[in-house]
Amino acid sequence: MIVATYSIAACDLDAAQWGVAVQSKFLAVGSVVPWAEAHVCAIATQAYANPRYGPDGLALLRDDLPAAEVVRLLVGADDGRDERQVGVVDRHGDAASYTGTACLDWAGGRTGAGYAAQGNILVGAATVDGLADTFEATAGKPLAERLIDCLAAAQLAGGDRRGQQSASLLVVERGGGYARLSDVVVDLRVDDHSRPVEELRRLYALHDQLFGSTPRTAWLPLDGALRAEVAERLTALGFKSLDDWAGVANLELRVDGDDAIDPVVLEALRAAASDLDSPA
């Protein structure tokens, strides 16, 4: 299973998030490469991939071993190490990347504060530099957005020399996922697509619409003309309350009370009601 690809394992310590983004000329790369656990690590395993590097690496990192030591232990116990590639970022943001001597050219990696970038069967080193340089230049943005930007820059720099097929984005945070009851903030996969990074960005925009959050200070007071408009649109759609409609529209996490409305919810409601008037 040669997972020729480029990937970045990274963290945002201020947000307490860890994540992995990957693209490859390989079907469903997200089923093999990315591994992450909140307050533990992010791991990318690829090339002639050893999937055991994921769970085995997580187990070692739970014991607070440094990234470099975990990589040393993983590859040291693996007879196929010369064909492996792995990147690890630990709970402290320290990183390590390993490329076996038998990985197909171009193959290599680069590490920095909070990230490990690597790739194999690439057009050249510029692909990995695209990952690393973009991560370093985008500090302050949400981790998921940074990782997608990294993939896009790497693809622009040449990418996988065999082409494109699949991409994946995984981000974890303790209690940062659905309804604050899951650690998985984002888990998106594009399994087979002519432009997987672009499709991954599109899916992330949808994900953010449904599961992201708008600061309460940016919500709009639900009174006067706006309250009347919302009631009219809900009636046109056949709903008695905003809660009822939001539940059907998968926007229930963005509704909280009836004194104010998230602008994202209002835009979606207007779009849904407008669709009723559009010709079939």
Give a short synopsis of this structure.
With 280 residues, this protein is of the alpha+beta class. The protein is built from eight helices and 13 strands.
How would you characterize this protein structure?
The strands form three sheets. Strands 8-9-2-3-10-11 form a six-stranded antiparallel sheet, covered by helices on one side. Strands 1, 4, 5, 6 and 7 form a five-stranded antiparallel sheet that branches. It has eight helices and 13 strands. A hairpin with a 2-residue loop joins strand 8 (108-112) and strand 9. The protein is α+β, with helices and mostly antiparallel strands. Helix 3 (125-137) packs antiparallel against helix 4. The protein is elongated and about 70 Å long. The protein folds into two domains: 2-211, Glutamine Phosphoribosylpyrophosphate, subunit 1, domain 1 (4-Layer Sandwich); 216-277, no CATH class. It has helices at residues 53-62, 67-76, 125-137, 143-156, 196-211, 224-237, 242-248, 263-277; strands at 2-3, 5-12, 17-24, 34-37, 41-48, 84-90, 95-99, 108-112, 115-119, 166-172, 184-190, 220-221, 260-261.
Please give the structural blueprint:
Layout: E1 2-3, E2 5-12, E3 17-24, E4 34-37, E5 41-48, H1 53-62, H2 67-76, E6 84-90, E7 95-99, E8 108-112, E9 115-119, H3 125-137, H4 143-156, E10 166-172, E11 184-190, H5 196-211, E12 220-221, H6 224-237, H7 242-248, E13 260-261, H8 263-277
Helix pairs in contact: 1-2, 3-4, 4-5, 6-8
